[in-house]
Amino acid sequence: MAGIQLSGLVSGLDTQSIISQLIAVESQPRTRITQQQAQETKRQSLLQDIGTKLTALKNANDDLKSVLTWADTQTVTTTDDSKVAVSRTGGAAPGGYDLSIQRLASAERHTYAFTPPTADGPLTILNQDGSTRTSVALKAGASVDDAVAAINSSTDAGVYAVNVNGDLVMAAKTTGVSSGFSASGAGMGSDLEAVAGADALFTIGATSYQRSSNVVTDALPGVQLTLKAKTSGTDTVGLTVSAPGPDKAGVVTKVQAFITAYNAVVDTTRADLADKAVPNPQTNADVTAGTLFGDSGLSGMLTTLRTAVSSTVAGMTGLTSLADLGITTGAANTGATINDDSVAGKLTLDTTKLNAALDANPLGVRSLLGGTTNVDGFSQAFNTFLAPFAGTSGLIAQRVSSSTSELTDIKSRLDAFDTRISARQDFLQKQFTNLETVLQQSQSVNSSLAGYLSSSGA
C-alpha cells in the first residue's frame, strides 16, 4: 500500500493494530499452503535422490555386460624387474620364457679437446659415413659452454653435448653400432677418447638377438622388453605370458560396483519409507518429516528389485543365479543376532566364490552376467525389472515431473492468496481512513454548531 498509515487520531482507535490482526486471521490459510509447498519440495528432492541412485545402478548393471569388462587381456611378468621390464603391446603367445642379456645397447661417445676459436666459424657434426649432418655457428672466442649450448639447441645434431673439465663430450642420442658420428670445425681439437656404439645382445630360450636399442618390441611378439642390466653367467630372467582371458580383478570390481549401487538404492529408499510424520509439527523439519513414509510405489520398487537379484536367470545352465557367484543378501541371522542388512535386502559379495567361478568357468560367468553376445543374462533381465522405475520415462521421473507441476500450482495459489490479502489490507486501510474522515467532519460540524449556539445566546 502507498502512503503513510496513521492510527485513528480522531476516533482514538489503534487502526493499524486492528488491521494487522484482521489480516493475520485472514492469512492463516497461507501457512497451510506454505507447509504443502515445503512438503512437496521435500518429496521432489527425495524422489530426485532416488532417481539419481537408480541411474547409477543402471550404469553399473550395464557395465556387467559391457564388452570392455569382458575384453580378453593378458599379463606379462618378469622375475627380475631390475634387469628387464616388460609390458604387453598386443596378443602374445602364452607361456614361460628364459631371457639372458649378454650386452646392453650403448651410444657412441667422443671426448674432444676444445680451444676457443680465433675467428667466427661453424662447428660441424658428421654422420658415420663422413657426410655432414649439421653445423652450428660459433663466434670468435666462444667457450666450451657456448659450444655445448649451440649443439644442444640444434634439432638436427643428433647428439647430446656436455662440458667435462673443459673438454667437449658428445654422445649420440641413439644407441647401437649405427649411432656413430664425428665432429670438426671451430674450436675442435683432437679426439681424446672415442667409444663406439654397441648393439644389445640377448637370448630368449635358444634364440639369439641383436638389436640397436634396449627397448625391443620385435623379439617376443606382443611384448615390449626394456633391457636394463646384464645377466651374469648362466643366470636367466624368467618371463611369463598368461593365457588370454577376462581381467578377473576388473570383473570383480564391476560386480562390487553393481552391489554398491544396488545397496545405495535400498538404503536411501528404505530410509525414506521409514521416516515418520511428526505430530503437531513445530519446525520446518517437522513439517517435512514422513513425506514418503510407507509409499506403496517405492515399496513395490524394492520388492521388484529384490525379486530380480534373487531369481534364476532363464536359459542358463550350470551357473544360473547371482548366488552361484557369491552374490546374496547373506544370512538373516547369525546366532542370536539379526542381520539387519540381510533383512533389508542388501547384497553382499563372496569374492572367494566369485574368483573360483571365474577360474573354473569364465565363459559361464560371462554368460550369466550378460556379457556374451546374443545371450541374455542377468544384466538384460535386471534392466527389464529396472526399466519401469529408472530413466526419463520411469516411475520416479514421472513422479518428479508431477511434483514439479504441483509446486507450480502451489506457487500460483500463493501468489493469488498474497494478491487477495494485499487488496484486502488496502480496502481495510481505506475504510478506516474514511471512518476517521467522517468522524473528523462530524466533530467539525459539532464544533461549529456549538459555536453558533453560544454566540446566539441560546
Report what the structure shows.
- The protein is α+β, with helices and mostly antiparallel strands and about 450 residues long.
- The protein has three domains: about 280 residues, no CATH class; about 70 residues, no CATH class; about 90 residues, no CATH class.
- The protein has a five-stranded antiparallel sheet with strand order 2-16-4-12-13, with no helix packed on it. Strands 8-9-5-11 form a four-stranded antiparallel sheet, with helices on one face.
- β14 and β15 form a beta hairpin.
- The longest helix is centred in the C-terminal third of the chain and has 61 residues.
- The N terminus is likely disordered.
- This is Flagellar hook-associated protein 2.
- Homopentamer.
- It is found in: Secreted; Bacterial flagellum.
- InterPro entries: FliD, FliD_C, FliD_N.
Highlighted features:
five-stranded antiparallel β-sheet, alpha+beta, 458 residues, coiled coil, FliD_N, FliD_C, 21 strands, FliD
